[in-house]
Amino acid sequence: MEIFTPGGPLLIFLASMFTSNILLSNFLGMCSFIALSRSMKTAFGMGIAVTFVTFATALINYGIHHGILAKGSVIFPEADLTYLEFLIFILVIAGFVQFVEIILERFIPSLYFSFGIFLPLITVNCAILGVNLLMVDPNLNFDLFKTGVYALGSGLGYCLAICLMAGIRNKLQDADIPEPLQGLGSTVIITGIMALAFMGFTGMVELG
Q: Is residue 1 over pLDDT 50?
């Protein structure tokens, strides 16, 4: 497998982090991005949790898509059940998060309590669902390995974006910002500038 060719794993990884960043290109997961980017610790915790769940659920849902739902699947080869993907992918994500919570609470309580509210919150993070839906796009034609690379890159791209925003917002705490732009106003402006910066990589790496 040529990793440096167009559509190769390395370029998919870089594109999912930068030019096709799930936050700054597709604007999915903006609620948690804005609400949890006030401190670096919180942002990093959310970013790691999103990365892990995105990677795991994308692989699970890839198997469900090609094994059950898609036309020509292993179990129902004659049926096209892709209209159920939205519902099933949400259930898989919610169920996986609950499973991870139970395992961590039972066997690694210190890690469970360090995550705090992050695990329940990622159940409703639309960035994760967005990655799960995009990875079965027939135009992309991802196999299992490329799906894993794409999901990992998207999760790390989310983590990178939210940590960058947290760092910028911390620096701006002592800045003299006009009152109308304080809080959400400045955050939206910074998000737009960050999106333009990430889009500057367009042409260097492409997802398709």
A: no
